[in-house]
User: Fold this.
Amino acid sequence: MNDKTVLELRGVSKSYPLGRLRVGALNDVNLSVQRGEFVALVGPSGSGKTTLLNLIGCLDLPDEGTIYLAGEEMQDASKRQRALIRGRHIGFIFQTFNLIPVLTAKENVEYPLILGGHYHRAKGSELKELRERPAKLLTELGLEEYINRKPDDMSGGQRQRVAIARSLVSKPDIVLADEPTANLDTKTSIEIMTLLLEFNRKHNSIFLLATHDPLVLDFARRVVTLVDGSVAKDEVTAETEVANVN
Amino acid sequence: MLIKTGLRGVLRNKRRTLLTMLAISLALATLVLMNAFMDGTNHSMFEKIVENSGHIQLYAPGYYDESRTLPTDIAIGDLEATMETIGGIEGVVDSTAQIRFGGMVLHGGDDMGGFFIGVEPAGAARINNLDEKVIDGEYFADGDEDVCLVGKRMAELMKLEVGDPLTVVTQTAYGALTAMDFTVKGIVYTLNPMIDEGGLILDLEDVQRHLELPNAATAILVVGADMDSTIELRDRLLATLNPDGPPIIPEEGEIALTTAADDDLPLFAGDTTGGFEIPEDEVASPTRSGFEGYTWQELSATIIELTDFKNQAMDIIRGIMIILAAAMIANTMLTNVFERTREIGVLMAMGARGRQIISLFLTEAVFLGLLGSLVGVVLGAGVSLILAEVGIDMGSDVSSMISVPFDTVLYPLVEFTGIVQTFMLGVVMSLIAGLYPAVKAARLQPTKALRYL
Assistant:
């Protein structure tokens, strides 16, 4: 693992029980992702894309193998520690947006800052900046007029933008997106992918996008193909532009 | 934010929230109403007991143990001086003397066993409100001689009306058989089953004369400042009245002898020889020195025990109602958890820890409980206050049915502390009921929760 490597998977396997049997979802996956990479995870349904995202996102633990996040081994982390890692270092974008319907756009975006304890740790100008960040982020995403609206009053594209703002608000090291454009039309999908790429360049975060959408591949700098739970192909399609961000 | 989410979460499914709140509110309203009803019943019952018995009763030593037989030969002597002493004791508000005895009532061709009380008319009016209980005829008046008040039921059974003559057959304090003629001056309805069913109320002076107990009584009723601090007053009374310490109850052979109060010695006093009563100069004195005292709580121990038992039974009913309301909350919260499983997964993905998930769902449960409890206690207190104003007619026979002094119209008693306690109970119950669903939510596997549709 070199200095730029933020995420590394070594010999990761995962299976799930199905009745009396166990069905393998991932089999001896090795993967190394460096800061600022914009990676598309592709493969047929059941190839293990979502399972891989879940393991990287500390939502689940592998049966075998080791996952390193910023050099730290995740295997031994407690449930609470994994929750803290998720809250502070990882952002999630879901296919179905998964916004909290009773909260406004701003409140939805603010939620990870509260759950991850970001407000608690910040003081003075940093706290002020944190408090202003959700509205600022939504404005940047073109949702200024929708800040105080609830998800039910928004279109699919607007909701996904809110979901993106929510995933980015804590400036995570890794953003994991599971089929982020699946429920969007082409125009909106392009807008969303453009936004994600912009953030990737600006904040130097790792973006891992599990997708079936060929459009996403046009934006990806690296494409990892999973077949039957194993990495079948791993190719760099464009040079990653690493922003000058600490 | 967790609280805000929790509060808004309650309003997600308004119909379900409303139904749950309704269940909590109804349970709490019923509890408040039940408490008011029970408190009202107990208060009315205890007030009636105190009205009949005073706060403390003083007897001659040994009377209490024999009180079931209504003995007239265990009496308090030197009554006037004793009453004066009692009146001067700190904390005594009022007092009155009585002579209680048993015997037969004869009227026309009918006879009936009865319970008789000789009362001081003025004292009985002040303490027992006896003058207000005359439903036909009149109360005692100055100058009356050998008139009586008859219990309502007894009057019905013996077909007695105001102005009718009746004869009481009993024994004097010296054991002599005696018959006394009285005229019915009034019919009373006291709510005391003993009097209403078979009681005669007589003037104490008449009874003293007929029973050969001049300046004596079998009981002194004492009223203090309130019905709760009776033990202190009783102890003070006895300390003053028994300056040499608690009296010793005399054995049969140790009872002091006296000359009979009447000029003619009692017919059956002394030994018998050849079938004839031989009067003796001296006989066993019916009055004893010293006093024993009992509070109304001690005198009504059985009723108080029954009340405690009744309260325990009500506690069980209360418990069942609380459990039912709690089950409703738990069910609603569990449904919330199931419906929002995916949302819980999202929260976990955003870094929510178990404690935060628990807080979120507990907030919802407590909010439900707070609102439901508030509506419930306001509703319960409102209905109780209205009923406390108009009263609940329990029917005129309730007192005799349960053999306990009891007002025919019950007024629920609304106590602020009881309402606050019921409200707190509702909130705590909601918290406990919400705990299981909240913990269940916090224990969900994030990946499973996110897959949940």
